[in-house]
Amino acid sequence: MNENLEIKPWDLAKYPDKDKTSQLAPLVRESLSLLGEDPDREGLVKTPERVAKAMQFMTYGYKIDPADILKSAVFEEDYEQMVIVKDIDFYSLCEHHMLPFFGKAHVAYIPNGKITGLSKIARVVEILSRRLQIQERLTTQIKDCIQQTLQPLGVMVVIEAQHMCMQMRGIQKMHSVTTTSDFTGAFETQKTREEFINLITRK
Questions:
Q1: CB-CB neighbours of 161 under 10 Å
Q2: Are 109 and 83 in contact (CB under 8 A)?
Q3: Which of 161, 178, 169 is nearest to 92 (CA)?
Q4: Could you say which of 94, 106, 141, 147 is catalytic?
Q5: From the candidates 49, 160, 165, 167, which is the catalytic residue?
Q6: Fewest CB atoms less than 10 Å from the CB: which of 7, 87, 92, 168?
Q7: Residue of 37, 97, 160, 167 with catalytic role
Q8: Does the pTM of the predicted model rise above 0.90?
Q9: Which of 30, 77, 95, 136 is catalytic?
Q10: How far apart are CA 58 and CA 92, in angstroms?
Q11: Is 96 a catalytic residue?
């Protein structure tokens, strides 16, 4: 291992905590019993520990302030045109049923003397999605984080997602897609919003 490689806090946060694993695993085991399964059968013996670790990974976003990610790569730049990072894949857990919802996020901002590394925008989406969420809140949190941290002329976020709580249970509509958007500043102008939408839908 190269000791000169710095391990970022957001990478460390992905590793499960042994104490939390030991506390969560018995609860998963009890849940299996309540559901009518035998937690001692071969296929399930290690499931409680696996689930405990998986849940920590899928919610590791609680351990990180996404603003810190943006601040780690801020540069002064005289550029006042739209910066777009589109088709950012994300996976999250719906807080109502703890079932996955997933899709793509499209993020744009118009700098006001400062820019950030493009990968940091994708990391903000990743961190905020790795919490118990609803799509509407996730959309707004991404927008607010970028607006408050970079103070750009405007931010716009569009998220398109499929929700397993609609596909696996309930209404069971397999191909439904939910779209949410939120924006600030310059994107309050319809022409600017339309430019963004045209750019993210262009193939």
A1: 23
A2: yes
A3: 161
A4: 94
A5: 165
A6: 7
A7: 97
A8: yes
A9: 95
A10: 7
A11: yes
